[in-house]
Every structure is written in C-alpha cells, then in structure tokens.
Amino acid sequence: MIQDKRFVSGRIKSVGFAAKGAYKLVTTEHSVMVQFSIMIIMIVAGFYFNISREEWMIQVLAFGLVIAVEGLNTAVEKIADFVHPEFHDKIGFIKDIAAGAVLFAAFSAIAVGTLIYAPKIFNF
To answer: What is the pLDDT of residues 6-43, one digit of tens each?
Structure first.
C-alpha cells in the first residue's frame, strides 16, 4: 500500500480505515456486540427518562470508554494470538491485563448508569 502524504486526502483515508475497523469490531466481536446492545438500550433509556445534557455527556463518555478499551483489548488479543498461537503463560498474563482494563471501564460505566438512572427509577 502506498502512503498518501497529502494532508487532507490522507486524513480522509485514515477516517475510512478507522470506520472499517469500528465496523469490524462491532460486527465480529461478541463482547462488543453485547456492549453495543447495552449502549443502544441506555440511549433509549436516556430519551425515556429525559436525562439532562450533562447526564448525556457523561453517559456518552462512558460508552466511548468501554467500547474503546474493548477495541484495544481485542487488538491485544489478536496480536498475541498471531505472535504466539499456542497457550503461553506470559501471553495469558498480557491478555488478562487487557481484559482487566475492560473490566475497570465497564465498572465505571455501570457506576455512571447507576448514578444517572437509580434516582429516576426509584424516585429518590
């Protein structure tokens, strides 16, 4: 592949590659499919409960965090599997750490969702 050294057309191509990667992530990775589905449900809930502009901003950041970290986790796993297809303790350790990062992001998103929606659902 020849690298496009022109600024504008190079950036447009980069966005195209990123969109292709995002599509592959959402359509091929089961954990991302689940997280993406939860994101859609939470968007519907946001409209239903008429959450504030600030709550929307925080919710969108939480979605972005989880999906982005999951994408990085997937990339780490794919690279690790490519480099060392058989089980190896060090590769397992690396993959566990990447998965742990996703867990931190997911817990943060759950906390955000709880802080936004619990008062609306339970009226306190």
So the answer is: 888 888 999 999 999 999 999 999 999 999 999 999 99
What does the DSSP assignment read for 14-74? Answer: HHHHHHHHHHHHHHH-HHHHHHHHHHHHHHHHHHHTT--HHHHHHHHHHHHHHHHHHHHHH
30-122 is classed CATH 1.10.10.10: no
Measured CA to CA, the distance from residue 72 to residue 79 in angstroms comes to 11
**Structural domain boundaries in the chain:** 30-122
Q: Cβ distance 38 to 66 under 8 Å? A: no
- Residue tagged 């996703």 (tokens): 102
Structure tokens at 93: 């350790």
Residue 21, Cβ neighbours under 10 Å: how many?
13
